[in-house]
């Protein structure tokens, strides 16, 4: 008597092989994804520093003062920003950065631009973990304020 089809053992072996290959692919995917994130952060940091240097060039070589109200700071619509939003570096550097998506905001933070409160969110949640310590000084205790566990859980590891 001739039977067509597969035995139970053949099916189980096939499923096991697919499971092993799938787990290997997942590990490889996570590594590639983390490398891509690192590359994006490095490029964003380069663009941010380029904006910072352009600002310094336009201001006789002076660094961007940390947390200082800037009445000329405007949002993406060209409207003036109120204090304290206009004192934070993201909006003060915007004229020197061609596109804030991918520099100030990326890896899921872009949704801040769609919020009704976007001016504030962009000012307090720029990506890269860069704060006023890097960009011209720090307002407050002078500590470098590394990202805490809550920030890392929400945004992932910082590569810079």
What does this structure look like?
The chain has four helices and no strands. The protein has helices spanning 8-58, 89-93, 118-124, 149-155. It is mainly alpha-helical and 160 residues long. Helix content is 44%, strand content 0%.
Question: How many β-strand runs?
Answer: 0
H/E series, N to C? Answer: HHHH
Mean pLDDT score: 76
What is the approximate shape? elongated
How many DSSP helices? 4
Low-confidence stretches: 131-144
Tell me about the biggest sheet?
none
What is the multimeric organization of the chains shown?
single chain
Share of residues in helices: 40-55%
Residue share in β-strands: under 5%
Distance linking N and C termini = 69 Å
Structural class: mainly alpha
Overall radius of gyration? 24 Å
Task: Describe the SSE topology.
Elements: H1 8-58, H2 89-93, H3 118-124, H4 149-155
Summarize this entry quickly:
With 160 residues, this protein is mainly α. The chain has helices at 8-58, 89-93, 118-124, 149-155. The model is unreliable at 131-144 (pLDDT under 50).
Relevant terms:
160 residues; mainly alpha
């Amino acid at each position: 008597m001739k039977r067509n089809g597969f035995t139970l053992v053949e099916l189980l072996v096939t499923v096991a092989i697919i499971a092993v290959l799938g787990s290997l692919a997942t590990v490889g995917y996570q590594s590639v994804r983390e490398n891509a994130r690192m590359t994006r952060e490095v490029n964003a940091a380069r663009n941010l520093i380029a904006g910072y240097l352009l600002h310094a060039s336009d201001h006789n070589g002076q660094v961007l003062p940390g947390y200082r109200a800037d009445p000329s700071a405007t949002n993406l619509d060209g409207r003036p920003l109120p204090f304290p939003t206009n004192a934070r570096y993201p909006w003060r550097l915007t004229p020197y950065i061609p596109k804030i998506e991918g520099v100030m905001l990326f890896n899921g933070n872009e949704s801040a631009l769609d919020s009704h409160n976007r001016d504030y969110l962009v000012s307090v949640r720029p990506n890269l973990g860069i704060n006023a310590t890097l960009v011209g000084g720090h307002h407050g205790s002078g500590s470098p304020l590394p990202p805490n566990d809550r920030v890392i859980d929400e945004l992932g590891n910082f590569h810079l």
